[in-house]
């Protein structure tokens, strides 16, 4: 075997020779190896330095890139089309955002506040857009924030000046903000005012001096606890634009008798505010312009304060047997609050309603239909015979059968209510009642062949029973067969508890 070592290749490059085997180098080549090692170490050091330099440059370039992108965005923004949008047009766009009610305490995440946080220009324009600040709701919070809330109220109310304040809602459960003083400079601009609170907190606002609320169109009063305002309602004196009143107070208030009713077109007296029928009649007698009215009547044992009863009895002689004409009234909704024995005073027989198109009467009782009640069948017939323009009738008397057999026959033939299109009744009787109404619907279809009679568009019959009879399903099937593409007939039984 021939032994070949590094000394046998004196001219082979050292790196190649070293890679060939692990034999020791000849002494003559040690110096060469040392020189090459030093050179390689120097080259590595230079390479590391270059890498470090390049990494530093790369880091710098990477850091510079977002700054350049930001400049690009800035320069693009500088020539962007929206910068050329005129402030007037931007203001119109803001108004299309439908900000809704601006509440105090402030809600910074809602419009218009959020618009003002986009940029200084948008803030200037949003503040200058008066229409953004015309719907305001003031709901005072805790006492420790009273000062900041007062400043917010002043700021918000002032930003709409001199435009009308389309809607102001004041919830007044305390006097922390002295709201009367805060809104006093703006009352001439208020179009729609809602007052919510206790009687004591609302009374000072109702007693504003006359002739201040010159722009007022709608007034809503909600007293949250039992109690009557003690101050006269002077704020509405001179409010010649006032057309709508919503009164939600637990008890009637004698100050309403001196209210400027003659200009009102819409009056809503909720179920929480039952009236003696004489009070209601005296009010309606003054409503020459009334178009829609919702009110609640109560039998005298329901009145919780002696003042209301005394007012009604005092006005009985004033009303007498006179007919009261409300010439423009088109919608009348009456809720009869009845919870005990007695004879409620009559109401409908006193009314002449030549333009009535929509009539509703409801009661909270399940007792039988009383001939001496506020709305007897005779009274109802008197009203229906004279209301030739009636299109909708809703009878929610849950205690009996308000429409007599003869009246059903006349309605079916079109002799009364010839223009009636919608009839809704809540009844409590046996199957015979439902059968009579279905007969009437069929007769009306025949009568509608005459151009003077309109066929039904919708009939809804709710029959309250304790237990269904064996005929129930057959009658419901008959009602379904009367239903077609031109007329909806819905009949169903309500199981009584």
TrEMBL record:
Keyword Coiled coil on entry: yes
Coiled coil (UniProt feature): 30-64
InterPro entries, per database record: LRR_dom_sf
Keywords, comma-separated and alphabetical: Coiled coil
Annotated source species: Hypsizygus marmoreus
Origin: domain of life: Eukaryota
Protein name: F-box domain-containing protein
């Amino acid at each position: 075997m021939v032994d070949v070592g590094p000394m046998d290749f004196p001219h082979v490059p050292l790196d190649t020779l070293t890679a060939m085997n692990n034999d020791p180098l000849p002494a003559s080549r040690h110096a060469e190896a040392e020189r090459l090692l030093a050179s390689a170490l120097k080259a590595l050091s230079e390479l590391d330095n270059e890498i470090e330099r390049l990494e530093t440059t790369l880091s710098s370039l990477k850091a510079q890139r977002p700054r350049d992108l930001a400049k690009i965005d800035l320069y693009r923004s500088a020539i962007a089309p929206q910068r050329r949008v005129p402030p007037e047009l931007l203001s119109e766009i803001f108004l299309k955002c439908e900000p809704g009610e601006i509440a105090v305490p402030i809600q910074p995440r809602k419009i218009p506040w959020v618009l003002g946080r986009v940029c200084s220009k948008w803030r200037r324009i949003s503040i200058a857009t008066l229409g953004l600040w015309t719907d305001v709701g003031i709901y005072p919070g805790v006492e420790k924030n009273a000062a900041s809330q007062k400043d917010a109220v002043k700021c918000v109310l002032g930003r709409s000046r001199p435009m009308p304040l389309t809607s102001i809602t004041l919830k007044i459960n305390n006097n922390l903000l002295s709201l009367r003083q805060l809104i006093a400079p703006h009352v001439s601009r208020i179009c729609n005012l809602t007052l919510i609170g206790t009687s004591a907190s609302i009374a000072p606002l109702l007693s504003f001096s006359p002739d201040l609320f010159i722009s007022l169109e709608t007034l809503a009063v909600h007293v949250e606890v039992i109690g009557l305002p003690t101050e006269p309602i002077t704020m509405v004196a001179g409010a010649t634009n006032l057309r709508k009143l919503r009164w939600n107070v637990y008890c009637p208030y004698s100050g309403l008798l001196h209210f400027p009713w003659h200009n009102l077109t819409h009056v809503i007296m909720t179920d929480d505010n039952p009236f003696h029928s004489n009070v209601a009649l005296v009010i309606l007698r003054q409503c020459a312009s009334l178009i829609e009215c919702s009110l609640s009547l109560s039998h005298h044992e329901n009145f919780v304060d002696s003042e209301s009863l005394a007012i009604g009895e005092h006005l009985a002689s004033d009303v007498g047997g006179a007919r009261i004409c409300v010439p423009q009234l088109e919608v009348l909704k009456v809720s009869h609050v009845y919870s005990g024995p007695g004879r409620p005073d009559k109401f409908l027989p006193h009314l002449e309603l030549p333009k009535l198109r929509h009539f509703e009467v409801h009661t909270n009782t399940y007792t039988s239909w009383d001939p001496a009640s506020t709305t007897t069948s005779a009274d109802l017939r008197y009203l229906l015979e004279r209301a030739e323009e009636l299109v909708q009738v809703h009878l929610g008397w849950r205690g009996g059968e308000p429409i007599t057999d003869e009246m059903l026959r006349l309605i079916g033939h079109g002799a009364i209510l010839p223009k009636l299109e919608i009839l809704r009744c809540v009844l409590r009787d046996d199957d015979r009642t439902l059968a009579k109404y279905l007969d009437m619907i069929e007769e009306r279809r025949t009568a509608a062949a005459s151009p003077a009679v309109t066929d039904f568009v919708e009939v809804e019959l709710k029959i309250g029973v304790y237990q269904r009879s064996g005929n129930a399903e057959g009658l419901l099937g008959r009602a379904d067969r009367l239903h077609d593409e031109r007329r909806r007939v819905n009949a169903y039984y309500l199981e009584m508890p």
